[in-house]
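Retry 2 of 3 after timeout on previous attempt. Resubmitting structure tokens to design endpoint.
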């Protein structure tokens, strides 16, 4: 019953988000349903979606490639199962706003950095939602002791995902070294350890960096 109410709130909030945006992320649809859509139902996203598995958990996305029923509807949906101290590493969606709802487990530390360099960091509990404005750097980290199950909806059928750390390390080493105020050797070592991930996978913290259930804070 509680999960049902959470899903109703999530769907209602998503509808408000999509309706109230003055500028749509995608063009308005010209037909009710895509000619390629044989059904409005998709079964078992964690088995049949666009699944990526990392040390921090499972990410299962649903876009028009996997589910033609989404064509021209301006939506991408992603579900997550994140282990304690797993992280959806900092990234951006250049073409979409994201609305995230924690369904169970966690809690999650989640937030974004705005164009003034100010961080908006919050702790989410089951039933909570957070919006990540279009194009802004954001992340989610499971700071609890239980696997976090959460759902994200993005208001574009092609939102794009840019892995922030991996992207910076794709720059010439000299440019990245200046940006990080490091020497070229240090940047080279980081680059060898941190490839660009597409799509980004959920990563687990190294020992000592995060302890499940401890330091549940917006400042750590």
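Retry 2 succeeded. Sequence:
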């Amino acid at each position: 019953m509680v999960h049902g109410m959470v899903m109703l709130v999530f769907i209602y909030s998503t509808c408000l988000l999509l309706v109230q945006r003055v500028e749509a992320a995608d063009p308005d649809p010209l037909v009710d349903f895509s000619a390629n859509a044989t059904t409005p139902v998709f079964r078992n996203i964690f088995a049949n979606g666009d699944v990526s598995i990392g040390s921090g958990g499972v990410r299962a996305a649903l876009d028009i490639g996997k589910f033609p029923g989404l064509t021209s509807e301006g939506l991408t949906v992603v579900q997550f199962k994140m282990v304690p101290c797993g992280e959806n590493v900092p990234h951006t969606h250049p073409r979409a706003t994201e609305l995230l709802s924690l369904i169970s487990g966690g809690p999650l530390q989640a937030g974004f950095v705005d164009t003034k360099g100010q961080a908006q960091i919050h702790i989410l509990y089951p039933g909570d939602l957070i919006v990540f404005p279009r194009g802004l750097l954001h992340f989610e980290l499971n700071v609890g002791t239980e696997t976090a199950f959460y759902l994200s909806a993005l208001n574009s059928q092609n939102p794009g995902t840019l892995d922030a750390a991996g992207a910076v390390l794709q720059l010439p080493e000299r440019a990245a070294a200046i940006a990080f105020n490091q020497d070229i050797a240090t940047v080279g070592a980081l680059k060898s350890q941190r490839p660009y991930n597409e799509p980004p996978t959920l990563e687990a913290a190294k020992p000592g960096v995060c302890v499940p259930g401890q330091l549940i804070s917006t400042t750590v």
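Attempt log closed. The mean pLDDT is 87.
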